[in-house]
Amino acid sequence: MDSKTIQELVKTTTEEIFKSMVFMDVKGGFHDGPPDIAERHLTAMVGFAGVYIGLAAINCTHAFAQKVGASMLQMKTDELSAEDVRDALGEIANMIAGRFKSQLALKLDLVGQVFEQSVPSVIEGMDYETHAVTDAPSHCIRFEDSDGIVFYVELALKEV
Question: What is the pTM of this model?
């Protein structure tokens, strides 16, 4: 599958998940290079295995992760625990990966073939990078919410 199709799938999948599950309108566009977040941030990742292998990840500031968690859980940001924030972001990564996986299966006529995903993992900190363990091509989409807050969704995907 070509890069443009994968990027468009990631973009539409992420926009749909945020609209339906986080109650936020977000808009995405291709970003050349790794996520660019200078402050403390979180990365929630989900791995793929089967006919395709790879990794899907969402990268955002701690403040945006709190905003996502508060919207999903219908709570105020100051009512959220650190675990609530990590769980919410992990669940968003899981939903994006799951929706992407099913859309990819439909597009490539892979329905019913083994294509699994891992449980989400979330890391938090300052100056860190994530790398998929495969030599899969990586795609990074930059998103903004209606307040102009930026976050990134990355996808590394390779057919086996």
Answer: 0.91
